[in-house]
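Is this the right way to post structure tokens for a design question? Let me know if I should format differently. Anyway, here goes:
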């Protein structure tokens, strides 16, 4: 049998990939109407945005498993909430799509949200610097202005040496969260028995050193950096899958990944039609999404805000 015929006869895994929706649910609805081909899975690399239940519901017509991580627009979303059994939050798990294995983590250096590694680091920092934290909270509660000009009591606390040490520890923890999350996923992959070239690592931020952590890694999918792009580094296929938001500079972009054992990863870049109607529809939807919306209990949680 010729190689061409063998390639045609082997199983192909097809995955629909995108990210950075930013609450533009009408774009997701347009996507599901455009892409009627069968997919083995959908993978979203973060930035779902407001009204997540409407977003998940818009993907149901595709009828295949949906795997996702959270980005900087998703700091309010719970890591434990399950929309339904076909929708899988990839943080902390390894999932199978045919012969491929998906793994990744949620959050990024611009917003960690409910990320467990970040929360643990933050707890340690706040415990170590509890006295200055208590003074800052008391000053913020007082919400008054002292005679020394426009400085509030909270501003005066922020100028102390104790707060400076707390701020430095907070920033260090913020950066450390990325390394801890990456190491956690890499260790999980090391313990599995899957060939690294079958791994697909999903995160919202670009992890350019992944080929060093996982030699032979098949693919890394990420978002955040608007502008769909495919590159190759040390044998790993890097795919910037953003952004589906029609208001992004290059319009609504997404991709289709086709994988076979003989050919590996083939990435097809695609665009939704760049119509003013879709842009205005998404703008109107997003402008109302900031209003109070009824979401299921346990889906949204408070965000740990920066103290600066």
């Amino acid at each position: 049998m010729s190689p061409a015929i063998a390639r045609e006869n082997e199983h192909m895994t097809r995955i629909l990939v995108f990210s950075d929706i930013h609450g533009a649910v009408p774009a997701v609805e347009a996507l599901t109407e455009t892409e009627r081909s069968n997919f083995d899975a959908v993978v979203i690399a973060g930035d779902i945005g407001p009204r997540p239940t409407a977003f998940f519901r818009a993907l149901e017509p595709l009828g295949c498993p949906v795997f996702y991580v959270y980005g900087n627009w998703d700091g309010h979303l719970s890591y434990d909430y399950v929309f339904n059994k076909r929708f899988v939050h990839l943080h902390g798990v390894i999932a199978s799509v045919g012969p491929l294995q998906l793994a990744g983590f949620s959050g990024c250096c611009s917003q960690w949200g409910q990320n467990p590694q970040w929360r643990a680091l933050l707890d340690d920092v706040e415990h170590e610097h509890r006295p200055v934290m208590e003074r800052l909270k008391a000053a913020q509660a007082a919400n008054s202005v002292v005679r020394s000009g426009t400085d509030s009591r909270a501003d005066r606390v922020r100028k102390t040496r104790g707060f400076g040490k707390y701020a430095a520890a907070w920033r260090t923890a913020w950066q450390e969260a990325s390394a801890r999350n990456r190491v956690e996923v890499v260790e999980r992959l090391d313990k599995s028995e899957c060939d690294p070239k079958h791994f697909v690592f999903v995160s919202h931020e670009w992890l350019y050193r992944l080929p060093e952590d996982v030699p032979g890694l098949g693919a890394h999918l990420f978002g955040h950096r608007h502008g769909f792009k495919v590159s190759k580094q040390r044998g790993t296929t890097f795919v910037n899958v953003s952004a589906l938001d029609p208001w992004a500079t290059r319009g609504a972009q997404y991709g289709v990944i086709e994988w076979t054992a003989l050919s590996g990863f083939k990435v097809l870049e695609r665009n939704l039609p760049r119509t003013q109607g879709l842009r205005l529809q998404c703008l109107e939807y997003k402008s109302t999404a900031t209003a109070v919306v009824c979401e299921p209990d346990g889906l949204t949680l408070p965000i740990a805000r920066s103290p600066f």
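Format looks fine. Someone answered above. Worth noting: Confidence is low (pLDDT under 50) at residues 5-9, 145-149. The chain has two domains: 3-114+179-289, 118-169.
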